[in-house]
Specification:
Elements: H1 3-15, H2 17-23, H3 29-60, H4 65-86, H5 101-126, H6 128-155, H7 160-171, H8 173-187, H9 191-216, H10 221-244
Helix pairs in contact: 1-5, 1-6, 1-8, 2-6, 2-7, 3-6, 3-9, 3-10, 4-9, 5-6, 5-7, 5-8, 5-9, 6-7
């Protein structure tokens, strides 16, 4: 099975996370709120685990440490800058947005999904197992994100049907990014290697600035402990994948 097939399949499956998110809308609002915090925690753990157990160890074998950490820092700053410019934040509560933010959220998500596609392509090109691990980490992030994004669009005034169509159109930017990443790598052979630590910096930013603050908002002690355990579970999942690989 060739690398291109893996890349297209993985990115297409990621785009389907929109439909998985819609299934959660059949839960009552109170139940959905309870479930989402645990999905967010699992997502944060998976992203952090993916960075420190997979992406950085892989990149450190081929990139000098000074350059490696500089790229991670640049990526962190880049994602922070994009958030400032686009007001890009992934909210996980239905009542967290204002009307104009619906369109800004779509713009930010389009860019984010495009980057995800490039990351998926670059990791699969380097190593199939690394690509699978990265795809799993992204998928665990996308599900709670899409739940929140759908809620943002509804709150911003979109009808449910239009919100779903717009959300899926934005999700398809993952495929577009994957195609660009694949063909770009054949032209610029070394660029893919440096996209791995760039992805690491992006994952750290998403987990640290978006997901973990959401977890910290939980005031109930038992739920806080449970969400922390889900965070650890996300890391353990990445560790188990490393053992299997």
């Amino acid at each position: 099975m060739n690398t291109f097939f893996y890349i297209i399949t993985a990115s297409f499956l990621i785009s389907l996370s929109v439909w998985v998110a819609v299934l959660f809308l059949y839960f009552k609002k109170e139940t959905l709120k309870k479930i989402t915090i645990f999905l967010v925690s699992l997502s944060a753990g998976a992203l952090i685990g993916g960075v420190f157990l997979h992406l950085l160890p892989e990149a450190s074998e081929k990139i000098e440490s000074g350059t490696l950490y500089l790229i991670v820092l640049i990526a962190f700053i880049f994602f922070f800058l994009m958030e400032k410019i686009l007001h890009w934040r992934h909210c996980h509560e239905e009542n967290c947005s204002v009307h104009s933010f619906g369109y800004m959220n779509l713009i930010g998500d389009s860019f984010h999904n495009f980057i995800d596609g490039i990351i998926i392509a670059s990791t699969f090109i380097i190593d199939i197992k690394l690509g699978i691990t990265t795809t799993i980490a992204i998928a665990l992030h996308e599900i709670p994100q899409e739940i929140g994004d759908f809620g943002v669009l509804i709150h911003a005034g979109f009808e449910k049907k239009k919100a779903l169509i717009m959300n899926y159109a934005v999700a398809l930017f993952v495929l577009f990014g994957a195609l660009v990443g694949y063909f770009l790598s054949s032209i610029l052979e070394n660029i893919v290697l440096y996209l791995v630590p760039f992805a690491a910096g992006g994952f750290i930013y998403i987990a640290a600035s978006d997901l973990i603050p959401e977890i910290r908002k939980e005031e109930n002690f038992k739920k806080s402990i449970a969400s922390f355990l889900f965070f650890i579970l996300g890391i353990i999942l990445m560790f188990l994948i490393k053992l299997i690989n």
